[in-house]
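Dear support,

We are seeing what looks like truncated structure output for some complexes. This example has two components. We would appreciate it if you could run it in full and send us the complete token output so we can diff it against ours.
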Amino acid sequence: MTTERPEVAAAACASATIVIVGAGQAGGWAAQTLRQEGFAGRLILIGDEAHPPHERPPLSKAVLAGEALHESTWLHKSEAFEALDAQWLPGARVTRIDRAGKRLELAVGEPIAYDKLILCTGGRARTLSVPGADGPGVFTLRTIDDALALAPLLQPGNRIVVIGGGWIGLEVAATACKKGAQAIVVEAQARLCERTVPAEISDHLLALHQAHGTRVILGAGVAGVSTDAFGKPVVTLTDGEELACDAVVVGVGMVPNDELARDAGLACDGGIVVDACCQTSDPSIFAAGDAAAMFNPWAGRRLRLESWQNAQEQGIAAARSALGLAVDYQPLPWFWSDQYDMNLQIYGVPLPSHQVVARGTPGSASFMLVYVDGDVVKAALGPNAARDLRFARRLIEQRKPVDLARLADVGVPMSRL
Amino acid sequence: MSNTQWIDASAVDEVPEDDVIGVMVDGRDIAMYNAGGEIFATDNICTHGHARLCEGFLDGHEIECPLHQGKFDVRTGQPTCAPVTEAIRSYPVKVEGGRIWLALG
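Here is the complete output from our reference environment:
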């Protein structure tokens, strides 16, 4: 698409300044896209971490396990990053957006003027509000620094208590076990990943982790975290049980960093509200990634997509939009998690109104659950079924009716549906 | 060049139409594609995330990596979709006597 809006000339001209706040994956892709689309003006990339733009998925897996250097997660090799000709401000914090003056105030240093602003502020790990949750030995996992701090504790003989049986918690538990540590997962709900997957998948995850020797405590509340005589953390559950350990990892979700936008009076609703062009309620300001809340046609509601795919694609879309290029971002949500030798993927948004068709046997190592509305596929998910799921994605996008009996028959290749 | 060394990689029948398979050829992990009856070959390991392209999804002349859904043109190895930015090596192919021959170079 090359249709241009009138303001493209203004935004793309060599004297314009585009500032990106947030140097994660969305910010990194936005920067790269601006240059790829020919933006010749001043490009400023502000990040509160010390690291250049990077992908986060390996931080709970290969980087945490010490199998990959954290530098391997960087989006750009150093020459490519330099070629972006961006003014990169690492470890910098923006304290205020002055919309009237179109400039940013920083915790340290002079204000920065912008013509267009792209907010890729991401999120931060949610913390527990119980006593001792900010004490020694209690970790969260979101950043490179988090992964590097926790990694040395994942070793034989150590016991790791993971609070929260969601994706991050389970990936950390799997990595801990792989490194020879013992993991205990404490989950408040009655099943794992309750908010994002159906019971069949929760059961699958439970069996997977139990098979690797992890104790999973469901429906358990945490009363507090204390420190024993040797300075090690002890997690006390609401039923009184005490779990002594070497480290506690709190994986109870993320909080979007939308305060900067909110304080500037931009529309926010559990995240920075943007339209399908990634534009906020201020036409000079765009947002992308974990912090952006956008109407998603597949879900039928406004939501934030906390995923690798969205960070990349929405970062690209926001950059194009900031240059005045035509953008209509309507992503089919896609998510994956790797735990042990299991790769689980989710396409689309399963809704309670959908019927479920199983392809393969739930409980086996590889199966797929397909969500249909009548005879149209709307969503699909399952463990170790990447290829079938990729075909399911095509069915979802094509919106064509399928024969449900053939869909359920593993003898019929997905490519022939 | 007449001194090209062609290596017998597999039978044509082994690569289903509009699909991809992985084969070891002379110690190298190679992805072989059948795009509408025409055979192409590239390295099998994605230049982005170390996934095997033979487990990916062939759509026309584009192979999509199963891990992050980056795409390459199987005819040239050129990247066509984010996140891949680095080309993958492609190899000359000829089909003779029902066999696929590769020039690994």
